[in-house]
Amino acid sequence: MDQAVRLRELAGRRRAGRGRVVVVASGKGGVGKTNIVVNLGLILVRQEQRVLIFDADLGLANVDILLGLVPRANLQEVINGRRALEEIVTQGPHGLLLVPGASGLQELADLDPLARNRLLDELAALAAGVDLTLVDCGAGISRTVLSFAAAAGEGVVVATPEPTSITDAYGLIKALQRLQISVSLLVNRATSPAEGRETAARIQGACHRFLQLEVPLLGVIPEDHRVGQAVRCQQPFSELYPRCPAARALAEAAVRLLGQEGGELPPGRGQGFWQRLGRLLGR
Ligand SMILES: Nc1ncnc2c1ncn2[C@@H]1O[C@H](COP(=O)(O)OP(=O)(O)OP(=O)(O)O)[C@@H](O)[C@H]1O
Ligand SMILES: [Mg+2]
C-alpha cells in the first residue's frame, strides 16, 4: 500500500493528540542532539507515545541517516511545491514518524512567506495528531532555532563537558530566557558521574547567578562507545544496544521529560505551535 495512504489511515485511527512540541538545541555543534532526538523518540514510542521527529537542521539534516532510512523525498520538495508534506512523512521503527529535513536548505526564516506558511499549516495538522513532536535543530543561535523555540515554549539544551560547549550552552540559554520559554538541560558524553554533575552544576550555577534562572537537569548521558558503533551501523543505539549505559540514562531522561508536564493539555496545541512559528518567522 502507498505509504501516504497508510499514514493517513494511521492518523485517522488516532485520537486528537496532545501536541506537545519540544525543541532540542545546543550552543556548540556535534554535542549529540540528533542522536538524542532519535533515541529519545524511539524510547518514547516504545512507551506508547505517538512521536513525530521534525528534522529542522537545514544545514546538515541527517535524522534519516541515523535511522538507516532512505526517505523518498524531503522537505525541499515540499517547499518547492512538488509534494505534499504527508507524502514525505517516513515511518521509522515502532511507528516513529519522521519529517526528513533537507540538507543545504536555507534557513526557514529566509523562505518566501507563501511557501513557509503553507509548510507550517501542513506541519500543524501533523503535530496535532501526535503526543509529542521533537524538533532537531541546527547548532547555535539562529533565527530559525529561536523562532522554533519561542513557538514551542519548551526547549532542551544539550551540552557536553567541554569548556566551549559549557559556555555556548550558557549563551543559548540566555538567548532562550529572553523568549520566556521553559528550558531544561541535558548533559551528554560525561566520562564519569562526577564530571556530569560538575558540568550541569557549572551551567546551572551560571544561569542562577547571572540570569536568576533555575534550569532543571533532565539527565546526564555517559560517554558510551556503543553510540559511535551504532552510528556507524546507521542504527539508533537504543535499538541496537538497548541496555547500554547511554540508552539507560536516556530512558531515565525520557521519564523526566514526560513528568515535566502534568495533566491533559488543551486539544490542538500543536496547531497553535506552528501558527505561532509562522508569525515569529514572518516578523
Ligand atoms: N553519549 C555519547 N557517547 C559517545 N559518543 C557520542 C555520544 N553522543 C554522541 N556521540 C558522538 O557524537 C557524534 C555527533 O553526534 P550528533 O550527530 O548526534 O551531534 P549533533 O549535536 O546532532 O551534531 P550537529 O550539531 O552537527 O547536528 C556522534 O556521531 C557520536 O559518535
Ligand atoms: Mg545534528
CATH level-four homologous superfamily name: P-loop containing nucleotide triphosphate hydrolases
CATH-defined architecture: 3-Layer(aba) Sandwich
CATH class: Alpha Beta
**Order of H and E elements:** HEHEHHHEEHEHEHEHEHHHH
Distance between the termini: 42 Å
Query: Uncertain runs with pLDDT below 50, 5 residues or more?
Result: 1-16, 262-268
Q: Roughly what percent helix?
A: 40-55%
The gyration radius over C-alpha positions equals: 18 Å
Overall SS class: alpha/beta
- The DSSP helix count reads 13
Bound heterogens, unique: adenosine-5'-triphosphate, magnesium ion
Strand numbers in spatial order across the main sheet: 3-4-2-5-1-6-7-8
Number of domains: 1
Portion of residues in beta strands equals 15-25%
- Report the mean per-residue pLDDT as an integer: 86
The main β sheet shows up as: 8 strands, mixed
CATH topology: Rossmann fold
Please give the number of β-strands: 8
